[in-house]
Amino acid sequence: MTAKPITTELIATSAQHARKIFPIAGGVHPPQNKSQSLQRPLVSARLPEKVILPLAQHIGAPAKPLVAVGERVLTGQLVAEAKGFVSANIHASISGTVESIEELPIPHPSGLTGPCIIIHSDGKDEKAAQDECENYMELGREELIEKIRSAGLIGMGGAGFPTSVKLAGQAPIEHLIINGTECEPYITADDILMRNYPYEIIHGVELLAHLLGNPKDIVIGLEENKPEALAALRDAAMGTNIQVVSFPCQYPSGGEKQLIQRLTGKEVPSGKLPIHVGAVVQNIGTTYSAYRAVRYGEPLIKRITTIVGDALEHSGNIEARIGTPVSDLLDQFGFKAKKSSQLIMGGPMMGFVIPNADVPVLKTTNCIIAPSKKEMPPVTPAQACIRCGMCAEACPAQLLPQQLYWYARSDDHEKLLTHNLFDCIECGACSYVCPSHIPLVQYYRAAKGAIRTEREEKAKSDRSRKRFEFKQERIAKAEAEKEAKRLARQKAAQEAKKKLEEQKAQSGSSEATPTKPAAPKVEDERARLERTLASAQTRLESAKNKHQEAVAENSDRVEQLAAKVKQAETRVEDAKSKLAALKTAPANTSADNSQVSAPTSSSTDADNPVEKAIAKAMAKQSMSPYEKVKSSVESLTNRLEKAQQKHAQAVSDSGDNIDALALGVEKLKEKLDAAQQELKELAPDEPSKEAAQKEELDPAQAAIEKAKAKALAKQSMSPYEKAQSSVESLTNRLEKAQQKHAQAVSDGSENVDALALGVEKLKEKLNAAQQELKELAPKEPAKEADQKEELDPAQAAIERAKAKAAANAQLTPKEKLANQIESLKTRIGKAQIKYDTAVEENSDNQEALSLGLNKLKQKLEATEKELAELEE
Amino acid sequence: MIELITNQPIIAALVALGLLALFFGALLGFASVQFKVEGDPIVEQLDSLLPQTQCGQCGYPGCRPYAEQIAQGDEINKCPPGGQTTVEAIAELMGVEAPQLDSGGAESADIKRVAVIREDECIGCTKCIQACPMDAILGAAKQMHTVISDECTGCDLCVEPCPVDCIDMLPIPVTLQNWAWQKPNPNIIATDNPQHQAA
To answer: Which Gene3D superfamilies does the UniProt entry name for this protein (chain B) (predicted)?
Structure first.
């Protein structure tokens, strides 16, 4: 498509293109410098050897690579897809193999590196299949926008905003403005494009108008320094409703907001988008590419770029593949590196210096300037501001650049905002006119960046505050829950204590003494401890031996072994001390017994064992015995009533626990009688007894009593519950201990050994407790029977196994016993397995397990015997 | 009545003044109850100026407590993460001269840092998780931990408790996303200014 000669007739006769041009504020008139690159026709660049495709060429999220290193790609193949709404696809601009995907310097004012896909050419330029479409105007809007989106189209004027996003808006459009202004000096890429492809551009405009709901006003705006392009477009626009208008040159009338004002007289308000005044502006290059994308399915893989400057043999426009290294293009124009002072991407007003010529051409690269040192000398150093006000005259956004300069220098962000810093379009007109050569735009850019960062930090700090407050709240909640649990536990303990006291008062009739049943337990305990001691001693021996060996061999494990020896020693010590404590304990108990019994026998009938027990109970508590007995009588009466009711009900229901209930009733009656008798006896001689007892109790004894009371409190819980709670608490403690140990290990702390010992001990204990729990579990149902209550609480814990077995024998039918035997057998099986594994692993809880196993076996025997007796 | 007033103007004036005093007293009393301001608004403003790192470098447990202390008359220069800019902002709010930041020998706060866990060295002790005021560390016991760098305020509090010292405070790298133009070098001597930008 060659340019048509301009005929005055064509311009004059075109009433279609008559339009009022509005003035814009400010602006400058820098030397055009456009003729250099217009001397030669548009050429196609040679196929580059490799292309570098940065993943972030557009505004928004960087694209996501879709190809792997070493993969063969075809020209136009999608190599990275848009990630998110505001993002754009990237296509291979040549065919070849993906050489690497790596961080490379990209053309960006920061000079930073960015992720790029590097494709090595195979020289064939094999095209991927393209989806051509002749009747594209018949397609739906969504479909067309999708085509534009998948072609990776972005605004080609410089900002690089994804085109599809701009077109996807639903707001009604009044003006569609196609920006062919190209107001920056040196750049002629759009001019050449318009001269060469006017029909494609017009089709593109029609396509965009179609997508935007055919707005009334469709206009292509050009500066009047492009008469050939104007004529070509007007020729092509014949018979359409597209206006092609030109207006006097004035930098920066190509700015989006300035162009809208120029062509419509409407000013886009501060902080608003063009859509606010019903206008959409598209770059001329984007329009052309949109047509190519929809009509021929051609993705955005090449663009026209102006290569210009005195450091080149000749200047001109070139259709280059996206991703071509700048050096490759410069070579084609005879670049003389010696002459060049710098390389600028974009125009001289808004472009930026690129660090070297290895960076690639982007979708937004409209110009590369390679000036000589004479053409663009190094920046003159800035002088002081003389407050001449020329910048304010030049500012197209009608800002006060001088004020902004002062505030930017002093970081006064608030003032900058009140002076509408963000309306600055960074056109550089102020810097251009500044007689002191102050780089004003750089100050504004820096200030904008600082304000954005500040805003982000503010948002982040707000989020941080919320997170912190949330954490505080969460912790407070957890604490409150813990506290509530603690209180509940305390309350439960108090209640249990109370209950215990009641029971104690009632237990007068029970004749058991705690020492007798305690004896076997003490024996067991002693046996266990002795075993532990023996094993600990043998372990100590072996540890010592090993240590000596290690010392002899001068092994590096000496320290470790020494620690083990120490550990074993502590364990032996521990076992010994425990054993000693156990041996002294029975003596204490008996002594205590005799002491307590002495005063009671003196004050009451010596031959009455019941009296003795009562007196003892009284000695343990400071409560007046008389009151206690009285209350116990009351509660017994209540319970008796209840038991009788239950019994009556059972009789009427002919339930199978009638016998048990009857027994319970009888026993209660007995108890009540006894208690009443006591009450009578107690009534007269109460005060004296109290006094006598108080004298007897010395502090040491008081402590013993306290400990006993505690034990009793525990016993008042059902043994099963007790075991359960102890298992729980042990598990907790074990976890904590393990944590501590892990911590100590990681800290390399000195007390690792001690902690390890603690953990082991806790494990032993836990195992024992679990065993106990298991043994107790099946007996739980038996609790239902009132039987339990009549047992002396002091005795209960120790005697429970026997008593319950007896109770079971009395209460349950044969089937129950048989069941029990079976369950016992399975449990023995399980215990055996556990024990075996423990033996294999040489675990520390062998003893505990064997003990449990033995107990289980004994119990099984007893149960079987009972069953046999029952059957007889 | 009118006669009494006209006859004894001094007493009348006193009575009138007394009545006015009572009326305005009542009005003020009513207003002070009706329009009572809950809390201390200055604390809110101060809190919003502080960087919310909750690092405790000021000696108080978090930013809000420090804001309260400033309102009570504490020094305003105790916030190293906020830097001199925060000191100046607070000084402006309080209407006082901005003192120099008292960083207490800490590193300059001008470089923003975030905690980074060297993940293969992490033993999963959860101590840093407990220390983090932002809940910005993810992980569980015996599992590797990691820092959500977007939420990390760079308060340093996780570094101390780490038993294996696998937490580094690294400056936030400059990326294309967070890069911003720098202010031009104010050097007016040409040879001091090697950068020749085309702006």
So the answer is: 3.30.70.20, Electron transport complex subunit B, putative Fe-S cluster
